[in-house]
Amino acid sequence: MKKTLLLLAALSLSTAATAVNIDYATWDGTRQQADEALIAAFNKSHPDITVKYNLVPWGVYWQKAAAMVAGGSTFDVMWMNLDNFPFYQSQGALSPIKLDAKTAAALPSVRTAPYRVAGQLYAVPLGPQPVTVYINRALFKERGVPVPTSSWTFDQMLAAAKKLTFTKDGKQIYGINGADLQADLEYGMSFYFGAGGTGLIKKTGDSYTANLDATFAKTSQKLLDLIYKDKVSPGPQASTQQGYQMFLAGQMGILVQGSWMVSTWDQNKELDWAFAPFPSVDGKQPRPVVSAHALVVPSGSKNKDAAQTLVTWMNTSPQAQRILAQKGLLPTLAENYKSQYLQALPGRNAQTVFAQLPNSVVINFSLRSLKVLPEVLTVLSQKLNLAWTGNAKLPDAIKQASSEMDTLLKTAK
Amino acid sequence: MTRSEPLRPEPLTRRDASLKARARGSQAGLLGLLTLGAVAILLPFVWMILTAFKTPAEAYTWPPIWLPAKWSLANFTQLFDTIPFARMFFNSVWTSVLIASLNILSAAPAAYAFARLRFPGQGLFFGSHLLSLMIPWQVTIIPVFLLIRQLGWYDSFTALIVPSIASGFTVFLLFQFFRSLPRSLEESVLIDGGSWFTALRHVALPAAKGAIAAAWLFSFLGNWQSFIWPLIVLQSSEKMLLPVGLLSFQNQYSVNIPVLMAGATLSTLPTVIAYMFVQRYLTDAAITSGLKG
Questions:
Q1: Alpha helices for A80-170 (secondary structure H)
Q2: How high does pLDDT run on average in chain A?
Q3: Longest dimension (CA), chain B
Q4: Which end of chain A, N or C, is surrounded by fewer C-beta atoms within 10 Å?
């Protein structure tokens, strides 16, 4: 008996001694509980690897990442987004990820394609994070506004927003967060794609040009009118609070935001929120934008094999997918875990999130290798922001943006 | 002892009365201006403290409301549940106290030597201290980080503390003070056979209490608020400092303001305590500054 115990102790000691320690880094504090649950499950099922959770806040995530890459010291598994992927990949800072054929085939191609360079995969996508519509059901009920159905249109949304804009107990309640719906940013772009938009930059042969066409101008005007013409949304002059803050305070009826905000609404237990279908524009099928974040293994990792095991497990294993869905988060293979996701968010009309997934769009996914993309998008955003803040007329802002974008794009290959 | 006539005040002329009224008016104006300044400084602190006790709905209401309808400690509970706040707080306190103290220990002899001794290369050494004030830290951050990594100090408190021990600013601050001390005090020590070190220890340092307190406080506050360097050289959450930890409540698309304010409220306590602790010396320094010249 004593010998057996000693043997067991020796065995456990040797296991502990050989366990590989890897560091997992994320910027998304809203899913901290889910990530910690995932890591606990992974550590349990992989005794040879010990994962440590590191939350690096969004505001400093890329500064820290750049410093670490420059210094050759790094986390083993890191969150990555499409805006930053081209830089890190082109600098050789990311390690290629090898997946077996079955796992690779199961991944959604729309979100893996942007992370594939020269046929080599450099990141495994996390669950889809689509732009969604939230409603405050208590306000809808109070104002006698019907709850949106799958055939909800932009005009019906506007009519609802008008009814939801009123004064209550000395406080202004607003219909919708128009200030967040700048047409070149993900929330506003969801309406642009829904209106038939094909992308803000057009590639013809080897050259690129700005594509701020009539669809873009018309959609932008509709969204801008929510603030200045229809007056159903606070502009920068009316409130310094952001849309989600007013929604959280019960002062906004409709909010266009991302599916990742679910845990934020938990802060206010009295908030009667629900998902609503994305409204159609001009009779076309809604096409909301979806964020395609992913996990990468930096080249500087000293434990690449263990890191890759974690990445693959987190984004494809049934256990990890189930844990995420049960926490109300969409896993990578979302469709397979629909029932768990819906059970996690009872009474929130969460099935609408699934209904919109097949038609969702990854922004600029075909342009990620364009070196000047960040500068071009910054110019566009700055010009449109002038219109959104009431400092320029929209047609002038679009004209200026188009011209400056073309100047930058002329140098692009 | 003769009893003298009590002095009778001269009757005020119209001009005197007018001058007095003007002085009173300008004093009231100045007081008003200072009060406005004080209110402007205090208001954000008051808002921070009050918001720490509000529900999210109250914190985000527009137009803002000042007082919470029901005072709640829920934000403080969430603060401690979400991040290892106590550990971060402790890390920030002991590292800031240690770095500030080591700053003084290293800077005081250096500053005294520059102020009193003459040695080869003095100008060059002093100039290099001044130069360190003129180079933005952003320029040196990567080279220092590489050095730290090569030394194997990454993700250790050593990486946080050692590069911060020497401070050109503290040397310069204390140098200015030591230079203003009358030499006669130290000369009497030297005449009695004491060394420069004795003069520093028994004359200059006690006389420089106020300046040292100010330098310590500056250093403490600088390290207490230090953000980028700890963010870069520390990785483990059990070693993380408060400013970096509190930023966890700021996500890409949202900020948990009430919980952040709860953390910010608690994080101001050590600075207030530190100031109260050294305030006496700062006041003494103001009184004893008559020594100058």
A1: 85-90, 101-106, 109-112, 137-142, 154-164
A2: 90
A3: 86
A4: N
The number of beta carbons lying within 10 Å of the beta carbon of residue B154 is 18
Q: What is the distance between the alpha carbons of residues B120 and A76, in angstroms, rounded to a whole number? A: 50
Query: Computed over its alpha carbons, how large is the radius of gyration of chain A?
Result: 23
Of A54, A258, A267, the CB nearest to B235: A54
What is the reported pLDDT for B140? 86
| pLDDT exceeds 90 at position A274 | yes
Q: Which CATH architecture has domain B82-291?
A: Orthogonal Bundle (1.10)
CA distance B230 to chain A (A): 10
Complex ipTM tops 0.95:
no
Parse chain B into domains and list their residue ranges. Answer: 82-291
The predicted-structure confidence for A162-205, as pLDDT tens digits, reads as follows 999 999 988 999 999 999 999 999 999 999 999 999 999 998 88
- Cβ(A196)–Cβ(A215) under 8 Å? yes
Cα of first residue to Cα of last residue in chain A, in angstroms, is 73
Query: Among A64, A79, A98, A82, which residue's Cα sits nearest to residue A24?
Result: A79
Chain B touched by A279 (CB under 8 Å): no
In 10 A of CB B77, how many CB atoms?
Answer: 12
Q: Residues 205-244, chain A: which have Cβ within 8 Å of B?
A: 234, 239-241, 244
Structural domains present in chain A:
2-128+292-332 (3.40.190.10), 130-290+365-410 (3.40.190.10)
DSSP H/E element including A230 = none
Q: Is A23 on the interface with B (CB under 8 A)?
A: yes
- DSSP output for B231-255: HHH---TTT--HHHHHGGGB-SS-B
Q: Which chain A residue lies closest to B150 (C-alpha atoms)?
A: A71
Question: Given this model, what pLDDT does residue B194 score?
Answer: 82
Per the structure block, which two tokens stand in for A201?
């930059």
- The residue behind tokens 């933005």 is B136
Distance CA B104, CA B106 (A): 5
pLDDT (tens digit per residue) in A105-157:
888 888 888 899 988 999 999 999 899 999 999 999 999 999 999 999 999 99
Neighboring chain B residues of A63 at a CB cutoff of 8 Å: 228, 231-232
Cβ separation A249–B235 shorter than 8 A: no
- What letters, b where the CB count within 10 A reaches 16 and e where it falls short, cover A76-94? bbbbbbbebbbebbeeebb
**Quick check: B55 and A251 CB within 8 A?**
no
Contact A261 B253 (CB under 8 A): yes
Structure tokens given for B263: 């953390």
Q: Does A21 touch chain B (CB under 8 A)?
A: no
**Cβ–Cβ below 8 Å for A171 and B145:** no
Q: Looking at the complex, report in whole angstroms how far the Cα of residue B233 sits from the nearest Cα belonging to chain A.
A: 9
